[in-house]
């Protein structure tokens, strides 16, 4: 997988400054949590890495390569948003396999099958694969949606509050699963949350973002011990 770096990234929407000089590095294979309140600039940060927004100034690098002008499609990262798009009438299996059939990956069916089963095993949804997604519970659907991102052979995962719509109990269970998946896969992950418990549970390191700036970065132990 790829390392990620943001070097002095600025981004404004009109007079509204979303990112005010973001400096951030995520090492190859690291699970990095970006923690901050609503409006701090978390989603915009992810979008600049994904290439969905270009910085006004500063640069984003993947594996040390400047991504300025590189199309999202060519960056090789997989991003998931707060709200997922699933095909409700199609099976969980199809929902997981369809990204792999897309022109971007074009995996042979047999290989896709292995990957889908691997991710379904990790997410505990192997028994649900034949069911239409519309017939699943919220928590099951959220697992499929997360699986749809994690199944991709991406250089990095960009996850935007993927557990935010779950109740506390389910969130806790999925947190543990995400942690386990992160430990197994070791794919660079930039994970955005406003929930400090979640960040502390998941992040190898945590960056605290406020008003478009990174105000603190460190291993979770350091962040934990500060007020
Ligand atoms: P977070 O993800 O931490 O909630 P965002 O990155 O979504 O924060 O937003 C950061 C700031 O940029 C906020 O003030 C938000 O209102 C503003 N913003 C984000 N996207 C847009 C947009 N498309 N148009 C105008 N303002 C935006
Ligand atoms: P990709 O990885 O290129 O997004 P997908 O198989 O996930 O490939 O999606 C193929 C197309 O279908 C994309 O344009 C995507 O935006 C769209 N799409 C995904 N989910 C839905 C949905 N639930 N309803 C309608 N369109 C969707």
UniProtKB/TrEMBL annotation:
Gene Ontology MF: a single term: ATP binding
Residues annotated as domain ABC transporter: 4-227
Disulfide bond keyword on record: no
Keywords: ATP-binding, Cell membrane, Membrane, Nucleotide-binding, Translocase, Transport
Domain of life: Bacteria
Protein name (record): ABC transporter ATP-binding protein
Residues shown, of full length: 7 to 233 of 371
